[in-house]
Design a protein that fits this description.
The longest helix has 24 residues. Helix 5 runs antiparallel to helix 6. This protein has one domain: Clam (outer membrane lipoprotein receptor (LolB), chain A), CATH 2.50.20.20. The chain is α+β, with helices and mostly antiparallel strands and about 280 residues long. The chain has six helices and eleven strands. It starts with a helix and ends in a 24-residue tail after the last strand.
Length: about 280
């Protein structure tokens, strides 16, 4: 090796070392290599990360939840909001769902208590002639939307299991949800595929939704934390209302937080369930 070659090698090593020191000093913001490359890898793994998201919720055990279902009808945008807790292992949840203001202008807004259970939805203060102390029980597999929007709230685990049907997804970038650092993904899920891959408790409901919606394709925006758990997911459903009208565009947003929160859900006894006819509201 000539003297000039040895000098070039020493210069190259010094430059590499200087670059490493500069990166260490400046941190992630000053180096275009390390973190950017890691984010590129995650972007290429977007679909797989979304497929795993529901399982990560089960591993987390439980959380608090806020839900929002928004639809445009008759030129008016209507939003139904809910708040409560959910146990992902037992697949039990409790939400207090606040209905929108009455079109007649009444200041009173009714709150419905909803209990979410495998294959069933229980509602109290349902109205429509149901006694105030009785629950209404609905088999979710009989609903044309699989209870993704009918109850005015989307079951948090079902919302995550829709992501099991992700066909395509793009990694949008890093952001925050309620003060938590998350990765934002945008994509499209297929409800029929989601039903095939879902847990036993959600399989029939998602299969019903795949047949009942105007299309089984569901665009979404999902936000996963560094543990791969869903922090926020927004689905856009095309819902057939059964009256021969054009499909309704429905946006459902589920926000999950305070993982590990205690959850106590007691399902009603048979005597507490209303067996009479429910009037149309």
């Amino acid at each position: 090796m000539t003297r000039r070659q040895r000098q070039r090698r020493r210069t190259g090593r010094a430059a590499a070392a200087a670059g490493a020191v500069l990166c260490a000093c400046l941190g992630a913001g000053g180096c275009s290599g390390g973190d950017a490359a890691a984010e590129d890898v995650r972007a290429g793994d977007s679909v797989e990360a979304l497929h795993r998201a529901a399982g990560r919720l089960v591993a987390a055990g439980s959380s608090k939840a806020r839900t929002s279902v928004q639809m445009a009808t008759g030129g008016t945008r209507v939003t139904i909001r809910g708040e409560g807790v959910y146990d992902y292992r037992q697949r039990l949840g409790r939400l207090e769902v606040l209905l929108p203001q009455d079109p007649a202008g009444s200041a009173t807004r009714r709150t419905i208590t909803e209990l979410l259970a495998p294959g069933a939805l229980f509602m109290k203060n349902r109205g429509a002639g149901v006694p105030a102390d009785k629950w209404v029980r609905v088999e979710t597999r009989t609903l044309s939307d699989g209870n993704l929007v009918t109850g005015g709230a989307t079951d948090p685990l079902a919302a995550a299991e829709v992501l099991r049907g992700t066909r395509t997804a793009t990694y949008v970038g890093r952001t925050e949800v309620a003060g938590t650092a998350v990765r934002h993904y945008r994509g499209t899920a297929d409800l029929a595929v989601a039903a095939q891959r879902a847990s036993a408790g959600n399989r029939a409901s998602l299969a019903a939704a795949a047949k009942g919606f105007a299309t089984a394709e569901v665009p979404f925006d999902a936000y996963l934390d560094d543990q791969g758990r869903v922090r926020k997911v927004r689905h856009r459903f095309s819902f057939v209302n059964g009256r021969g009208r054009s499909p309704l565009a429905v946006a459902s947003t589920t926000l999950l937080y305070d993982f590990g929160a205690p959850v106590e859900v007691r399902l009603p006894d048979g005597d507490d369930i209303y067996a009479g006819r429910i009037a149309e509201e």
